[in-house]
Amino acid sequence: xxxxxxxxxxxxxxxxxxxxxxxxxxxxxxxxxxxxxxxxxxxxxxxxxxxxxxxxxxxxxxxxxxxxxxxxxxxxxxxxxxxxxxxxxxxxxxxxxxxxxxxxxxxxxxxxxxxxxxxxxxxxxxxxxxxxxxxxxxxxxxxxxxxxxxxxxxxxxxxxxxxxxxxxxxxxxxxxxxxxxxxxxxxxxxxxxxxxxxxxxxxxxxxxxxxxxxxxxxxxxxxxxxxxxxxxxxxxxxxxxxxxxxxxxxxxxxxxxxxxxxxxxxxxxxxxxxxxxxxxxxxxxxxxxxxxxxxxxxxxxxxxxxxxxxxxxxxxxxxxxxxxxxxxxxxxxxxxxxxxxxxxxxxxxxxxxxxxxxxxxxxxxxxxxxxxxxxxxxxxxxxxxxxxxxxxxxxxxxxxxxxxxxxxxxxxxxxxxxxxxxxxxxxxxxxxxxxxxxxxxxxxxxxxxxxxxxxxxxxxxxxxxxxxxxxxxxxxxxxxxxxxxxxxxxxxxxxxxxxxxxxxxxxxxxxxxxxxxxxxxxxxxxxxxxxxxxxxxxxxx
Amino acid sequence: xxxxxxxxxxxxxxxxxxxxxxxxxxxxxxxxxxxxxxxxxxxxxxxxxxxxxxxxxxxxxxxxxxxxxxxxxxxxxxxxxxxxxxxxxxxxxxxxxxxxxxxxxxxxxxxxxxxxxxxxxxxxxxxxxxxxxxxxxxxxxxxxxxxxxxxxxxxxxxxxxxxxxxxxxxxxxxxxxxxxxxxxxxxxxxxxxxxxxxxxxxxxxxxxxxxxxxxxxxxxxxxxxxxxxxxxxx
Lengths: 541, 234
Description:
A: mainly alpha, 22 helices, B: alpha/beta, four-stranded antiparallel sheet
């Protein structure tokens, strides 16, 4: 037991820099906790407000607990999706493999420690979303101590089932892809297929619920059949009993233990296979090619991107969703127009006018969301690891290196963004000015998003990660960049809706929007040149 | 030429380098020796611009690493103690990348890559990704990348660690050749025999302070470098 505690302590200290804010670094400087805390409060408050809006309508019928159910389902789906593409990188082929497997401990203990690290992060992440909703419910409905007991248990145990599933899927994907020569590509394809499958299930939740409702005896029974933890939690909130509480705890602990036990049996074998680097036939000829400085850095960045599955899936998923969203909107606009009419958006000439007004607004909104939510550069500095010292010794200005990283990320995003633009241009009625403004936005928005990402990573670097997923998904910079993107998306969406509702012409809305982001672009460029360069030199790899 | 003048580096309350001063002239191989944690890597990182320092000045061929870092780096190459390279790149792509950064002309890089690939017996491995290499092979790639752009000043941190005996021999030959053409070599090492035989000058550092610096002859006198080092470390 002592060994396990020591292992967990070492692993958490090494890997969870997100929770070490406030600790002094080598130079005696403290990491500032202000920005992460501020963002967490903003997000918490937004969720609290949203939960209250939901409760407004639900409490009239005395079904406020449905809001909690929805939050449980959404966080479970997010944890599963996140867990699937993090598990492959967090559990297998880690940088501390040599150390861990040389220690006199069971292989399943190594697995346990790594799964536990993923689990702790997800508990924190889930708490950020669930806690405001729970507080909103407690304040609105009026609850006793059993609600708080059930909620604390829920915060601790709700991530277990998604994590268990994610680890099994992650193990299977890594195991299968390790048999291929191009194992990274195989891992990307398999993980994407699994994620699309999960999304398809989540997308069809309505029909699934209809089917389950036929056989359910109550709402609680329906929820339990749909997703056991949701039903169990709501059951404890509405009608607490100790037996159900113990069963809920027991099932989660048992599932976690069982997964570690079973996956632990084959864990070492899968990990060993995943580590094998297949070398091609020896060739004496090699190609030497001269590139410009920026060209060489961009090539290096793209090479790293393609070779890091968790990086590709993290960035690519949002971009693919953007493209898919533009296609779905284009195909199903009739039903969307009907939906808008339902909210009182009437058009004098029916569909045509709605399409004319909302096509550019929708595309602009989607562009903002797709750009700001997929911050590729929020981990590009951290992913260098100790090799960052190579960059520091090069006779190249830091701003050139920083902006080359930004350009690389924008280069990855552009094909998806432009394809989405074209789909919308073809389907909807855009004026020449609107097309020009959208194309300008299609360049400026990704640049702004990626400049924010790299600025965050320069501020919160994590140079000693044991796996790529740790920096891509679990680092302070990636979290802060995501939260900043989320906040800016929500604010932009709000401003677009307000300005359109006030009768401002669409061309002007777009022009002002593009202008605001262009100003932000210039400010960020100045920031990166002045402050970013300093931060670049301060990073110690 | 490297001029180090009163360099002080602090980590919070701890002073890692205390008023370190010495010069490394053109055509010299300079050995920098000291215990683990004495401040060798800290000084090397300050010279190469990886770390900032709190006081003092470091000049590379008359240019300050603080105020004219890019010009200094153009004339320098650095080989780290632990070759952390871009593991997902092929060896040739990594060397090409470094050459691109130093804007090495095509002909020059072709000539040098061929030369060093042959010397280090890496010709058959140039198309392999670096993550498939042993520690020694990675060290060879780091050395090839450093030498390919023909630096005027070569800085190395424990360059012989992990190299096979033939590569150590070849590396020593390369270093001797370099100083014949007036270049400057500064490296840290724990292998005192090599330092004694190869180097023209030496500095011994302890707890951030230079205990002794000068020509190899002047520092060691009639004794071996190992003996002098152990005496000073007492």
